[in-house]
Design goal:
By secondary structure, this protein is of the alpha+beta class. Helices cover 25% and strands 30% of the residues. Strands 4, 5, 6, 7 and 8 form a five-stranded antiparallel sheet that branches. β6 and β7 form a beta hairpin. The two termini are 29 Å apart.
Length: 132
């Protein structure tokens, strides 16, 4: 049993990108699915697929690399809020990752979203992770 499945999700992606793997597979949950959709929408991953007809459900993520240098698109994955120490932030104190070049995934009352979307909607929440 995992005590922090989100940290496991981020670690699997980080390790696979450092090892230059094309695809990473992991167990699925609703929050991991939403995080995967955000990573795809912001251009950090190439593609994803939810395997829902098997048990346990899984997520397959195709990692994205720069064509010339073969460097991963995701350079930093940092877990901020953990089960033992939650980090909450108001809309006025929303963090900026790399001065706006990266994203922070925020869990709000309206669901998971990036820091820019939360700032635009003027709502705060729990900071899940930083991605750049």
């Amino acid at each position: 049993m995992l005590t922090d499945p989100i940290a496991d999700y981020l670690t699997r992606i980080r390790n696979a990108s450092l090892a230059k793997h094309k695809i990473v597979e992991m167990p699925a949950s609703n929050i991991k699915k939403e995080m995967t959709k955000i990573l795809f929408d912001k251009g950090y991953i190439l593609n994803y697929k939810f395997e829902e007809n098997i048990f346990p459900q899984s997520i397959k993520i195709a990692l994205k690399y720069h064509p010339l240098t073969n460097e991963p698109a995701i350079t930093t994955l940092q877990r901020i809020s953990s089960p033992g120490l939650r980090k909450y932030v108001s809309a006025s104190k929303m963090p900026r990752v790399l001065n706006g070049l990266g994203i922070a995934i925020i869990s709000t009352s309206k669901g998971l979203m990036t820091d820019k979307e939360a700032r635009y909607l003027n709502i705060g929440g729990e900071i899940i992770c930083y991605i750049s």
